[in-house]
């Protein structure tokens, strides 16, 4: 596993400049007052001069500044926040989504079921930094990425990063990076992306290697809903409802993930980046995962053939639950047809471009002009599904009523799903719903929470893949085998699903 657990292991990673640990922790150097990523090329400091931190925010809280040489914020995030389900990990997922900026510390605490004071104590004890410090560090990292990767104005960068004022933006950049925003911008790459006025932007998103990009794109492509999504071997585009309005984005891959987006408001950039990273499982530890899975003889060839598989995530928890329920016990193609009809019947149309002509086309035509589906609608909300689904959905009456019932409960707030749900609690709440069984709850945990340790043994395709690889295909026996690949059972499931679809094995 990637995550180092004690001083000696972490120091060894630093001494060998092991890039696999970048993002898992940072080290503060007392003699220089800076903090670095483990792979920093600078001379390795003596152990007595080193202090390790779980996050850059904790290092900043102790007075350390970010290293200008290794840029510790410009790396994939820690896989720890999906692997763990405690309060600290759940808080980190919500901080990355911009909850502190939108709802304050009180809103973050309410989502987690704690008082603000108790949450602050927990995070300080666990991570060395409270929620405000964590959010501040995240804003600083976003700002640096925009400063060096775009030509957005300083004001636009400040508000896109979540800062409340230009002064707060300037002060934070100086404190974290020991230089002004203009000095940070002076280091930008000559190929920095030109940003259109107010709302169009393109960014490179760091991702750990190896990265099975083709596998993620293929997964998304076969499930793409016309009107909302368009996907191919190397791109994925879709519409999305963000806190401040609708947006359209596209992701392409060429040794790095490249996100292009058109937003209603630049302040929605933080939640968009967070959700795209979750969708592509960009913070996973592929080396650690593959090392565990490849020790299993039945999986060794599949891991060798396809290293760095990723667990496709979700951009909206409620949408994912409803799509999963609609797809129950029918083929992917049949589910896609029903979802297309649902979108056409009640999916909100994207608003027209601004009257000033800032956007020369109808929102963002990221896909090729001859694409079979224009990105013109949002996926329906739970309220819209509850109101109109009966007129569109086909199939057994009991299944349709279950879908409509869940949609109504999501609308009323009696049922809710969040990125920061405790996995056990979420599973308990979901299986209590009419029409939601073990398979649906497990699949939602994989997609919404990025839960790395789920093996849905009731899935027919998964059991077919297991049998083709010489593994037991009875649920109880397959579950017993799955314990051997914990905590990466979700990634083992991806290999089993792939085996069920391959033509070159019997």
Distinctive features:
alpha+beta; single chain; five-stranded antiparallel beta sheet; TATA-Binding Protein; 506 residues; DNA Methylphosphotriester Repair Domain; 3 domains; Endonuclease Iii, domain 2; 23 helices; 9% strand; 47% helix; four-stranded mixed beta sheet
Give an account of the 3D structure.
It is built from 23 helices and nine strands. With 506 residues, the chain is α+β, with helices and mostly antiparallel strands. The protein has three domains: 7-66, DNA Methylphosphotriester Repair Domain; 199-451, TATA-Binding Protein; 453-506, Endonuclease Iii, domain 2 (Orthogonal Bundle). A five-stranded antiparallel beta sheet has the order 5-9-8-7-6. Strands 3-1-2-4 form a four-stranded mixed beta sheet. Strand 8 and strand 9 form a beta hairpin. Helix 15 runs antiparallel to helix 18 (397-412), helix 16 packs across helix 17 and helix 21 (460-468) packs across helix 23 (489-501). It is globular. 49% of the residues are buried. Mean pLDDT is 89; it is low at 193-198 and 355-373.
Q: Helix count, per DSSP?
A: 23
Shape: globular
Stretches with pLDDT under 50, minimum 5 residues: 193-198, 355-373
Largest sheet: 5 strands, antiparallel
Mean pLDDT: 89
CATH classification, class level of the largest domain: Alpha Beta
CATH topology of the largest domain: TATA-Binding Protein
CATH superfamily of the largest domain: DNA-3-methyladenine glycosylase AlkA, N-terminal domain
Largest sheet, order of strands side by side?
Answer: 5-9-8-7-6
> Which architecture name of the largest domain does CATH use?
2-Layer Sandwich
As an assembly, this protein is: single chain
């Amino acid at each position: 596993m990637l995550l180092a657990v004690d001083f000696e292991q972490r120091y060894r990673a630093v001494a060998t400049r092991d890039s696999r640990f970048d993002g898992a922790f940072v080290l503060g150097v007392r003699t220089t007052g800076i903090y670095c990523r483990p792979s920093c090329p600078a001379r390795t400091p003596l152990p007595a001069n080193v202090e390790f931190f779980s996050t850059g925010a904790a290092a900043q809280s102790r007075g350390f500044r970010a290293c200008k040489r290794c840029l510790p914020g410009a790396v994939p995030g820690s896989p720890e926040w999906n692997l763990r389900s405690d309060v600290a990990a759940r808080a980190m997922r919500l901080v990355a989504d911009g909850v502190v900026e939108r709802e304050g510390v009180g809103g973050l605490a309410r989502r987690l079921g704690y008082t603000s004071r108790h949450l602050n104590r927990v995070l300080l004890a666990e991570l060395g930094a409270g929620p405000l410090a964590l959010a501040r560090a995240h804003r600083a990292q976003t700002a640096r990425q925009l400063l060096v990767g775009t030509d957005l104005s300083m004001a636009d960068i400040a508000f896109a990063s979540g800062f409340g004022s230009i002064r707060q933006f300037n002060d934070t950049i100086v404190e974290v990076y020991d230089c002004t925003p203009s000095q940070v911008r002076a280091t930008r790459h000559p190929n920095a992306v030109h940003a259109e006025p107010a709302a169009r932007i393109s960014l490179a998103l760091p991702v750990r290697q190896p990265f099975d990009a083709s596998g993620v794109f293929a997964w998304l492509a076969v499930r793409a809903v016309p009107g909302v999504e368009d996907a191919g071997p190397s791109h994925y585009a879709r519409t999305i409802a963000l806190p401040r309005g609708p947006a359209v984005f596209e992701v392409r891959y060429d040794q790095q993930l490249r996100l292009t987006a058109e937003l209603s408001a630049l302040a929605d950039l933080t939640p968009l980046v967070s959700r795209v990273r979750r969708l592509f499982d960009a913070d996973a530890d592929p080396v650690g995962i593959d090392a565990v899975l490849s020790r299993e003889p039945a999986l060794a060839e599949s891991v060798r053939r396809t290293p760095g598989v990723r667990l496709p995530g979700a951009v909206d928890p409620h949408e994912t639950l409803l799509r999963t329920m609609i797809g129950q016990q029918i083929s992917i193609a049949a589910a896609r047809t029903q979802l297309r009809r649902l979108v056409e019947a009640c999916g909100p149309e994207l608003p027209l471009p601004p009257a000033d002509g800032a956007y020369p086309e109808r929102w963002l035509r990221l896909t090729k002009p001859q694409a079979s589906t224009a990105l013109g609608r949002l996926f329906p909300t739970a309220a819209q599904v509850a109101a109109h689904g009966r007129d569109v959905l086909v199939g057994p009456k009991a299944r349709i009523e279950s879908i409509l019932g869940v949609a109504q409960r999501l609308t009323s707030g009696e049922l809710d799903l969040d990125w920061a749900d405790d996995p056990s609690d979420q599973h308990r709440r979901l299986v209590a719903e009419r029409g939601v069984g073990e398979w649906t709850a497990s699949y939602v945990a994989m997609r919404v929470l990025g839960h790395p340790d789920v093996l849905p043994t009731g899935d027919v395709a998964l059991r077919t893949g297991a049998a083709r690889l010489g593994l037991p295909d009875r649920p109880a026996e397959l579950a017993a085998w799955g314990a051997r690949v914990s905590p990466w059972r979700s990634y083992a499931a991806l290999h089993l699903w792939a085996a069920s679809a391959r033509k070159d094995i019997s």
